[in-house]
Amino acid sequence: MRNILVTGGAGFIGSNLTLALQKRFPEAVITVVDDFRSGDFKNLRGFYGDIVAADISRLDWNRQFGEANFDAVFHMASITDTTEHDQFLQVHDNVEGFRALLNYAAVNLIPVVYASSAATYGMASGRMSESQPPRPANVYAFSKTHLDNLARIYNRMHPSWRIVGVRYFNVYGPREAHKKAAASMIYQLYSQMKAGRRPRVFIAGEQKRDFVYIRDVVDITIRAINAPDSAVYNCGSGHAFSFNEVIAAINEALGTHYEPDYFENPYAEFYQSHTEADLSITQKCLGYQPKYTPEAGIKEYISILESGDGFFDFIP
Description:
This protein is of the alpha/beta class and about 325 residues long. It has a domain at about 5-170 and about 215-235 and about 275-290: NAD(P)-binding Rossmann-like Domain (Rossmann fold), CATH 3.40.50. It is built from nine helices and 15 strands. It has helices at about 10-25, 60-65, 85-105, 140-155, 185-195, 215-225, 245-255, 280-285, 295-305, and strands spanning about 5, 30-35, 50-55, 70-75, 110-115, 125-130, 165-170, 170, 200, 210, 210-215, 230-235, 240, 260-265, 275. The strands form five sheets. Strands 3-2-1-4-5-7-12 form a seven-stranded parallel β-sheet, with helices on both faces. A two-stranded parallel ribbon has the order 6-15. Helix 3 runs parallel beside helix 4 (about 140-155), helix 5 packs across helix 7 and helix 7 (about 245-255) crosses helix 9 (about 295-305). The two termini are about 15 Å apart. About 45% of the residues are buried.
């Protein structure tokens, strides 16, 4: 790939992806588009490509890029705060941004990889497979569901066009600290324990999440550009890991012995108690095998946070 576009490239996943692409394809011209609402310039330290500061849902794509023939587009831009309940804002910016991008990319059938979300599974529990019908429980998940719908609609119009969704589960790792309250539970619990406080989790800490490390996320996202078909693929670790296990892993990494501080779950009636990615299709079609178990990912992540930097350089 010689000419690559990354939307949302200053965000958590987007910045790690951008810097990994830069290392893997050192001769490529990489362009990042980001409005910095949920991104941070610090995430792109060491980036030597081009940056366009713009909201993709309001960007005049043809005026900005003309007939630039990108070899690939990685669409990571999104309102990522799942607690943002303004329905018009969530749906407009997430859906119309993707639509505008697809309209631009359709002219030359530029391969597109876009960020879907495990939130589309909603209140389903147990192992989650791509064949399950969506059950979005909030407007963020609804907007991501419609991204999947749009991808299928455009692919029916252009059957030879590769449009691939990557359905991210609970991603954690370096370059997420700027998200603050929207950062992963692993980062939240680490921050509490680092400050000398007992980690707070809902009673009794046995809620489970498929926590997937950012290195594995970047690996599958890059693999997706060569997917055999237009489809949506799960991106997780394949493990359901409880909050109690997260706390134990952080304690081990820090050499501490904090006990959980349990409190009542105020969202019990619509709270997901278990997420776990079924990776069988992803492994078969993309050759993806997670390299990091939750224990291994947390151990490396804590060592990076403890270094005082919170960033790392990607190994191609």
